């Protein structure tokens, strides 16, 4: 039986789990229409290349059933759908899903299923998906180990899990520049460009509190995934974790 967590991280603060769920929901409801702008500011526009690399590693096949968690605005789902996969986009935030549906209609991408779902207790049957993806969303989940176990549950035997997330770079010189940029400049730029400095402050703080690459790899392994691999990008400023249900 899962023991309830007493506190979880909300940026640099430790709060009750329900407070994080509520606060993160409010943040993403406010910024749904500017989500890609947020990623542009946080990554210098490179998130688009990272997402291309991520999807190339997923290797979506025509007809495969793939669940894209925290998929909100559809960036990952669109890439996989163009390769012929049958993609379900799930997000806990209805505002993010509405933005994704709007973008899909504008781009003429059909066949996607948009579903409100909490990654910790998904409304999907056991063993229903060939792959599960999550990009820049796992650190916003309140109970990450619980979510990883539920991801394992909804995967078919032989299915694969792929996660793209900001992490901590191991390049010393670059690490100092990256820290200065993200902690000092990104929130201020977000306040000027997007009008929401608080949201950007939370996002950069949440990156600092996210587990280091080896620690998150152990969490994925603890959720019963096997053949867990980590692919660092920019020395680990971003990382792709993957594992198999075998």
Q: Would you mind describing this structure in some detail?
A:
By secondary structure, the chain is α/β, with parallel strands linked by helices. The protein has one domain (8-244): Rossmann fold. It has helices at residues 17-31, 35-43, 47-58, 75-81, 94-107, 144-154, 172-193, 197-209, 213-222; strands at 8-10, 13-15, 65-69, 86-91, 113-116, 129-135, 155-166, 226-233, 238-244. A 7-stranded mixed beta sheet has the order 5-4-3-6-7-9-8, with helices on both faces. It has a two-stranded antiparallel sheet with strand order 1-2. Strand 3 (65-69), helix 4 and strand 4 form a beta-alpha-beta unit. The longest helix has 22 residues, at 172-193. It starts with 7 loop residues before the first strand and ends with a strand. The mean pLDDT is 90.
What is the gist of this entry?
This protein is of the alpha/beta class. It has helices spanning 17-31, 35-43, 47-58, 75-81, 94-107, 144-154, 172-193, 197-209, 213-222; strands spanning 8-10, 13-15, 65-69, 86-91, 113-116, 129-135, 155-166, 226-233, 238-244.
Main pleated sheet? 7 strands, mixed
Report strand %. 15-25%
Low-confidence stretches: none
How many domains would you count in the coordinates? 1
**Radius of gyration, in angstroms, nearest whole number:** 17 Å
CATH superfamily: Vaccinia Virus protein VP39
Which CATH top level class fits? Alpha Beta
Q: Class by helix and strand content? A: alpha/beta
CATH architecture: 3-Layer(aba) Sandwich
How far is the N terminus from the C terminus? 23 Å
Query: How do the SSEs run, as a string of H and E?
Result: EEHHHEHEHEEHEHHHEE
Give the mean pLDDT: 90
Portion of residues in helices?
Answer: 40-55%
Number of helices: 9
Biggest sheet: strands side by side, in what order? 5-4-3-6-7-9-8
Indicate the overall shape: globular
């Amino acid at each position: 039986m899962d023991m309830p967590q007493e506190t979880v991280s909300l940026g640099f603060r430790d709060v009750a789990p329900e407070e994080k769920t509520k606060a993160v929901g409010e943040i993403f409801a406010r910024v749904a229409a500017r989500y890609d702008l947020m990623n542009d500011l946080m990554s210098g526009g490179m998130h688009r290349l990272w997402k291309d690399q991520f999807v190339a590693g997923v290797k979506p096949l025509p007809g495969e059933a793939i669940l894209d968690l925290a998929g909100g605005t559809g960036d990952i789902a669109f890439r996989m759908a163009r390769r012929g996969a049958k993609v379900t986009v799930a997000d806990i935030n209805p505002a993010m899903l509405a933005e994704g549906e709007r973008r899909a209609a504008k781009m003429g991408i059909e066949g996607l299923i948009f579903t409100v779902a909490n990654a910790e207790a998904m409304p999907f049957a056991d063993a229903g998906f060939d792959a599960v993806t999550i990009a820049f969303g796992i650190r916003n989940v309140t109970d990450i180990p619980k979510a990883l176990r539920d991801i394992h549950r909804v995967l078919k035997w032989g299915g694969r899990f792929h996660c793209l997330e900001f992490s901590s770079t191991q390049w010393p010189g670059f690490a100092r520049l990256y820290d200065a940029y993200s902690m000092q400049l990104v929130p201020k730029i977000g306040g000027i460009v997007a009008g929401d400095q608080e949201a950007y402050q939370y996002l950069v703080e949440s990156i600092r509190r996210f587990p280091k690459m080896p620690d998150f790899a152990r969490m994925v392994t603890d959720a019963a995934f096997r053949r867990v691999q980590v692919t660092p990008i920019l020395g680990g400023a971003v990382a792709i974790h993957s594992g198999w249900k075998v």
